[in-house]
Amino acid sequence: YNSPPPASEGSSSGGPYSGSSSSGGSTSGGPYSGGYSSGGSSSGSSSSGSASSGSGYSVANNPPSKADLKKIMALLNSTSIFRQLIEPCSTFNAAWIRTVFHDCAGGSTLDNTGGLDGSLQFELSRTENAGLAPTIGFFQSFVEPGVSLADVIALGGVASVAFCGGPVIPYHPGRVDATTANPTGRVPSATSNLQFLYGVAGRLGLVASEQVALFQGVHTYGGAHSANSPGVTSQTFQSFDGTPTTYDLNVFKVIQEGQSILGTDQVSYADPILKGYVDTYAYDKNTFTTNFMSAFKKCINLNQIPNLDPLILVPPTSTSAAFYRTEDEAVVEVSRRGYEAPGTQPEHDTPCDPSSTQSSRCSLEHGYVETCSEKTRTWTKYKDTVLEALPAGWECRDSHKGHHLVPPVAPAKPYAKYRRSTDEAESLSDGEASSEVPAARKKRSVDEF
Ligand code: HEM
């Protein structure tokens, strides 16, 4: 298990972390005044927006504005250094995934303190956080109004997992940064005993199956560095298994063989309950992945649920672009963001910007459109007489320039698959969304906001 890739997670001078942020500098839009649902289909339907964790995301206290979402999305652009560092999978991915845990592990569901809240920036001098300062420094360069450090850390983790062959973990932006450090004594070390590990899992809200999937399974990535963990390894870098940039089950086999370099793996494997999960995951990737995803989600969302936006940012695959979707799998164009407020008008996305290139937009009420009033700087609704005069089936669609009318979908013809149907975006499953959507369509969803 000793293959030694470069140990560095960013040299202090001249390394990739010296690059600057590629995200745009637009100003943050204000938070919406009211709650809204995550419905985002371009036909104007809405959905509940509740998260699969069972905790509702439908009302966010601090929802990112459309501009904020675009800034977060920009981190995953192929030209962004943020993405270039973690795709293809490298030692950066492991460092970023570790960073997620060292921020969230300071939190507790028991007293609702801490969580993935960026507090790690105030905790870098703690022994357990050795080696994390360059990563946090790099992440801080992306923080701007509307983009919290916590959101950047969480995105770094989720994207790193995805780009290293792991699952796509639902990522909701909107985290609020802490202004002080989380309590001390909450992050486990390689020599923590079983009782402490169960305690950490309890604070994070993990059950035993999730505890093993996260505390043991995540070490499918990366390894230990003598500079950070002299008590664990004397080598510059020693991977936890033979495949430190691959999402696989080897780490469980290492534990079964008693070869893990982490004492916590040994004590966990001596516990009959935790042992059972190690033995299961060692051959059952689906069960491991299910529990890994739910545990990782608990970590990145810990004590942030009310702040999280209902929309899920889906990392890109290969050369495709990132996109947003809702819990019910509908692909969302962020250009319509703020347009899905429950009820009718007018709290969504106000005030509007009269100088924007988007001169008009469709109304939630069929047959109506809206323009941005120069005087009040709000959207004003009026009946669309053109739409009214057209035969049934015509729809109003938004673009970055304004609304336009789309004829009824033609019956299937040989070339039909190349045309954009009126509801093409609404019916994608997770797998389809990540791998089978034509590149042109995905690109469009990004270009149009
Ligand atoms: C019982 C709980 C855990 C213990 C005792 C533990 C301990 C450690 C130690 C000692 C290292 C070596 C760090 C270094 O020398 O650079 C490490 C690396 C790592 N840890 Fe953990 N960890 C735990 C849980 C987690 C969790 C929950 C995550 C992620 C959600 C995580 C992600 C990682 C990753 C990806 C690395 C590799 C870092 C790299 O290669 O740069 N760990 N862990």
Would you kindly provide a written description of the structure presented here, covering whatever features stand out?
This protein is mainly α and 449 residues long. It folds into two domains: 16-314, Orthogonal Bundle (Peroxidase, domain 1); 349-447, no CATH class. Helices cover 30% and strands 7% of the residues. The chain has 14 helices and ten strands. It has helices spanning 66-74, 81-86, 91-104, 133-140, 149-163, 194-204, 208-216, 250-256, 263-269, 272-281, 285-301, 385-389, 430-436, 439-447; strands at 223-224, 238-239, 312-314, 323-325, 331-332, 360-362, 368-372, 379-383, 395-398, 403-406. The strands form four sheets. It has a three-stranded antiparallel sheet. A three-stranded antiparallel sheet has the order 6-7-8. The longest helix has 17 residues, at 285-301. The model is unreliable at 1-14, 19-58, 337-348 and 412-449 (pLDDT under 50). The structure holds protoporphyrin IX containing FE. Protoporphyrin IX containing FE is lined by residues 9, 94-95, 97-98, 100-101, 131, 188-190, 192, 197, 214-215, 218-219, 221-225, 228-229, 232, 262, 264, 299.
What attributes characterize this protein structure?
449 residues; mainly alpha; Peroxidase, domain 1; 3-stranded antiparallel sheet; 30% helix; elongated; disordered N terminus; binds protoporphyrin IX containing FE
Write the layout of secondary structure elements.
Blueprint: H1 66-74, H2 81-86, H3 91-104, H4 133-140, H5 149-163, H6 194-204, H7 208-216, E1 223-224, E2 238-239, H8 250-256, H9 263-269, H10 272-281, H11 285-301, E3 312-314, E4 323-325, E5 331-332, E6 360-362, E7 368-372, E8 379-383, H12 385-389, E9 395-398, E10 403-406, H13 430-436, H14 439-447
Helix pairs in contact: 3-5, 7-10, 7-11
The chain binds protoporphyrin IX containing FE (HEM).
Residues 9, 94-95, 97-98, 100-101, 131, 188-190, 192, 197, 214-215, 218-219, 221-225, 228-229, 232, 262, 264, 299 line the site of protoporphyrin IX containing FE (HEM).
